[in-house]
Amino acid sequence: MRPAGAAGAELMRSASVHAVLRCIVLGAALLTPALAQGSDASGPLRVYAAGSLTRAFNALLEAFGTPPGATSQPTYGPSGLLRERLERGEPADVFASADLGQPRRLAYAGRGTPVVLFARNRMCALGRGGLGLTQANLLDRLLDPAVKLATSTPGADPGGDYALAVFARAEQVHPGAKATLEGKAQRLVGGPSMAPLVPGQGPSEGVFLSGRADVMLGYCSGTDTLRRAVPDIAAVPLPPELEAGSEYGMTVLSGHPAAARFALFIMSEPGQAILARHGLIPVAQTANRTQPQP
């Protein structure tokens, strides 16, 4: 007999989360002999993560509670470029990407455990306040020849790939939009060997402080950080017809004893709550404080 009502739905969600956790544990156990080659189990935990995860992962690592010196300074950057560095042999224990494709390439090559979806994000149009951006007028503003548009770099940074997906969806709403948007979009951040647009500022901040663009497609989770440097910024979540969705995946890359435990912590109630506090969308359903009655 299937469980019914709210209790049944909660049990099904709980089973789904348990399946994810089993994937991490079993994947790490099965692949540990291969992944342990070249790993330093006595050294600090080494984490590579997407730049959009900087604040969230700093908080996660602090809450994880490793002893002093047990975790090295995390390495943040565009996920595609990080994956290339790992393929060239840079040592890391956990890789968390702003998409599923980059960690899957490592996993399929036998360099990591099966990929686990650990969070989602939303794409926003980040624009100067004077543009008066709304969800209703957003596409018209993006297509306006006078509006300078910026994106990240496809291939090197999933944010650029998500922008291309948004342009493809725009084609269904406004024929010809895809070609127009791809033609005018400036790939100003996230590429290899790109110098900061404004020294001492983050990539998105530099786009606006340098005057290179009026609107940028970026992650909604980064809005608060951007506004601290550029107060006159409106963040408009993409309307449903344009939203392409962004999914974050991670893989464990070594047999370091803390690597799988950190991955499990990310999927735990406290870990998912930390992600939510930093603007990401949790994927693991947290348990109710009271158990459903039989």
Describe this structure in words.
The structure is a single chain. This protein has 294 residues and is α/β, with parallel strands linked by helices. The chain has two domains: 5-120 and 246-282, 3-Layer(aba) Sandwich (D-Maltodextrin-Binding Protein, domain 2), CATH 3.40.190.10; 123-237, D-Maltodextrin-Binding Protein, domain 2, CATH 3.40.190. Helices cover 42% and strands 17% of the residues. The strands form two sheets. It has a six-stranded mixed β-sheet with strand order 2-1-3-10-4-11, sandwiched between helices. Strands 7-6-8-5-9 form a five-stranded mixed β-sheet, with helices on both faces. Helix 2 (54-64) links the parallel strand 1 and strand 2. The longest helix is centred in the first third of the chain and has 31 residues, at 5-35. It is elongated. 42% of the residues are buried.
Count of runs of 4 or more consecutive helical residues: 11
Query: What is the CATH homology-level superfamily of the largest domain?
Result: Periplasmic binding protein-like II
Question: Would you identify the CATH architecture of the largest domain?
Answer: 3-Layer(aba) Sandwich
Q: How many beta strands in the DSSP annotation?
A: 11
* Helical content band: 40-55%
Note the run of SSEs as H and E: HEHEHEHEEHEHHEHEHEEHHE
Question: What is the average of the pLDDT values?
Answer: 87
As a percent range, the share of strand residues is 15-25%
CATH class category name of the largest domain: Alpha Beta
Summarize the SSE layout with pairings.
Blueprint: H1 5-35, E1 47-50, H2 54-64, E2 75-77, H3 79-87, E3 94-97, H4 101-108, E4 116-121, E5 123-128, H5 138-143, E6 149-152, H6 158-173, H7 177-184, E7 186-189, H8 203-209, E8 215-219, H9 223-229, E9 233-237, E10 246-252, H10 257-267, H11 269-277, E11 281-282
Parallel strand pairs: 1-2, 1-3, 6-7, 6-8
Antiparallel strand pairs: 3-10, 4-10, 4-11, 5-8, 5-9
Helix pairs in contact: 1-10, 2-11, 3-4, 6-7
